[in-house]
Amino acid sequence: MAKKILIIDDEKDMRVYLSTLFKKAGYEVDSAVNGEEGIRQAKISRPDLITLDVLMPRKSGVKAYQELRQDATLADIPIVILTGLSQQEDFFGAELGSLPRPQAVCDKPIDRDDFLQKVKDILGD
């Protein structure tokens, strides 16, 4: 059975791009347009991995990450942060307190091959 990835990103072009990339690599894909919708979708679909944008309306990636990590039913799902922010690890990491750090933090625009390899490594593929 194919592993499932949930893409949480407010940019439609990014959702389409990542969805196509993951589907071509053999993964099932779900997507959400903001943190609120992403958390609801994660509870429904229980993905094997989540990609999460930092800057989004309604619920930022930072807030969504905190909520995902504090929910006992979702806390073990690997999360890859995607962001266009410079020095994103400093920005993002400062908000996490004692929560575990994400499995990876990747710059936008992504390096397709490097990004896909990180995802495969995290998923054990």
Any key phrases for this structure?
alpha/beta, globular, Rossmann fold, 5-stranded parallel β-sheet, single chain
Which helices and strands, and how do they pair?
Layout: E1 4-8, H1 12-24, E2 28-32, H2 35-45, E3 49-53, H3 61-70, E4 79-83, H4 88-94, E5 104-107, H5 112-123
Parallel strand pairs: 1-2, 1-3, 3-4, 4-5
Write a structural description.
The protein is built from five helices and five strands. It has 125 residues and is of the alpha/beta class. It has one domain: Response regulator (Rossmann fold, 3-Layer(aba) Sandwich), CATH 3.40.50.2300. Strands 2-1-3-4-5 form a five-stranded parallel beta sheet, with helices on both faces. Strand 3 (49-53), helix 3 and strand 4 form a beta-alpha-beta unit.
CATH class: Alpha Beta
The helix tally amounts to: 5
Q: Tell me the number of structural domains.
A: 1
Number of strands: 5
CATH superfamily, by name, is Response regulator
Instruction: Provide the helix percentage.
Output: 40-55%
Q: Low-confidence spans: pLDDT under 50, at least 5 residues?
A: none
- Nearest-integer average pLDDT: 89
Summarize the structure.
The protein is 42% helix and 19% strand.
